[in-house]
Design a protein that fits this description.
It is found in: Cell membrane; Membrane. This protein is mainly alpha-helical. It is 67% helix and 5% strand. The two termini are 32 Å apart. The model is unreliable at 441-449 (pLDDT under 50).
């Protein structure tokens, strides 16, 4: 306890760090306030978007912090920017001109950011138009008659696009002048906003059960803590590959001649495989629901609309493993790493520089990705098992899946930055032994968007 109090005192005594934390908290409050401001032309008393809590829309609503189901000015949240960022990231891998732009340093990064913002506007305008159609179909009476028709569509598209761009600006300000990755923190805050209500509801329901209901609730909390510990190990897990650097004489100084380590992440793909797998699993039920609503709730298709069924979880787990390898292959380039090591006179002991080094790094990455993929698949299906055990569905979503993985990863990233600020000023870190390694360390840097 004394160590914690001393660490907090050290954090508060650093003026720059204190300002960054206060600015981050202030911008988060602005975001949460805006998530409750209803769109113009909507009567909140007649609004009913119960369907927004399920399926793909439920995932969207979770990332938006409940703004989607409340029809707020931040209803689309930060997700259009995330989609645009992922698209640009894939373009830098697949398109040579974008790959060249990425290697141009700061000027190339600015160009990519400009293209990302432009693509964000296009994606947001398209999603805003779809959201207007969704409002009209699900909660038409909530739209005030004077705002109906073309004017409501135009005003809503403009407001939602402006809201997403403002949230994007908030995220960039948190990243530049605050603490942590702003985009990730905004998503995390939206997810965490549902936790208190979920805890209260679960506690109330278990208390009303009687006959050991409170004991069951305590066991659920213990199980949740165990899962969080396992996720911390998964996020921070690395395989250290020894790298030697040849001695060089630069001026009157000797450079190199030391052994360092290349940290390869066990879970280099981050949360992206789970998001991709969830999106794929929602497609069959959604298509069938549009074409033949009666068949979506019976037989084979019911298994793909109910995430507690064994078939759903098996297929979902396999998809997570497949997408883990797929996304890791996209963001991890062993050839580039081998070339950079060769350029800096670095080599792995016993391995020839160049292609042999790239093959060696790739083989290690393939081996450590397998247990990482299986662990990620287990994390993905845990909410389904929790719901099958009669745990409240909202609270069950915190037992794994996208929600918990994002929360753990973002908290580790933020704590890592705070610890770096403390160590830079010759204070002790947040831990008495070892150092915090967030998702952005090592090969995980490519997935720091989420």
């Amino acid at each position: 306890m004394k160590k914690i109090v001393e660490t907090i005192r050290n954090i508060w005594s650093i003026e720059d760090l204190r300002k960054r934390i206060l600015l981050t908290l202030g911008l988060i409050l602005v975001y949460r306030f805006g998530s409750y401001v209803i769109l113009p032309g909507i009567d909140p008393n007649r609004l009913s978007l119960a369907g927004a809590q399920k399926g793909l829309l439920g995932l969207f609503d979770m990332f938006a912090g409940g703004s989607f189901s409340r029809a707020s000015i931040f209803a689309l949240g930060i997700m259009p920017y995330i989609s645009a960022s992922i698209a640009m990231q894939l373009l830098t891998i697949a398109v040579p001109s974008f790959a060249k732009m990425q290697k141009e340093g700061e000027s190339g990064r600015k160009k990519i950011n400009q293209y990302t913002r432009l693509l964000t506007v296009i994606v947001t305008a398209f999603q805003a138009s779809a959201y207007v159609a969704y409002l009209r179909s699900q909660s038409g009476p909530a739209i005030i008659a004077e705002f109906g028709g073309f004017f409501f569509w135009l005003s809503t598209v403009i407001v939602l696009t402006s809201g997403t761009l403002f949230v994007m600006w908030l995220g960039e300000k948190i990243t530049d002048k605050g603490i942590g990755n702003g985009t990730s923190i905004i998503i995390e805050i939206g997810i965490l906003a549902r936790l208190p209500q979920a805890l209260i509801y679960e506690f109330t329901s278990k208390s009303n059960m009687g006959g050991g209901g409170l004991l069951i609730f305590l066991l659920e909390i213990v199980f949740l803590v165990v899962i969080i510990i396992g996720l911390v190990l998964l996020v921070q897990g690395t395989r250290k590959v020894p790298v030697n650097y040849a001695k060089r004489i630069v001026g009157n100084r000797q450079v190199g001649g030391v052994r360092q380590f290349l940290p390869l992440k066990v879970n280099a793909a981050g949360v992206m495989p789970i998001i991709f797998a969830q999106a794929i699993m929602f497609i069959p039920a959604t298509l069938v629901g549009f074409t033949n609503p009666d068949s979506a709730s019976s037989g084979f298709m019911r298994s793909f609309s109910d995430y507690t069924t064994p078939l759903y979880n098996v297929v979902y787990g396999v998809l997570v493993i497949v997408f883990t390898y797929f996304y890791t292959a996209l963001i991890f380039n062993p050839t580039q790493m081998a070339d950079e090591m060769k350029r800096n006179n670095g080599f792995i002991p016993g391995i020839k520089p160049g292609k042999s080094t790239a093959d060696y790094i790739g083989a290690i990455m393939d081996r450590i990705t397998l247990p990482g993929a299986f662990c990620l698949a287990i994390v993905g299906v845990l909410p389904g098992f929790a719901s099958a055990l009669k745990i409240n569905s909202v609270f069950a979503s915190f037992f794994g899946g996208t929600s918990l993985l994002i929360i753990v990863g973002v908290i580790l990233d933020t704590l890592q930055q705070i610890e770096s600020q403390l160590l830079m000023r010759h204070y002790d870190g947040l831990m008495s032994k070892g150092r915090i390694a967030g998702r952005t360390a090592g090969t995980g840097a490519g997935v720091s968007t989420i």
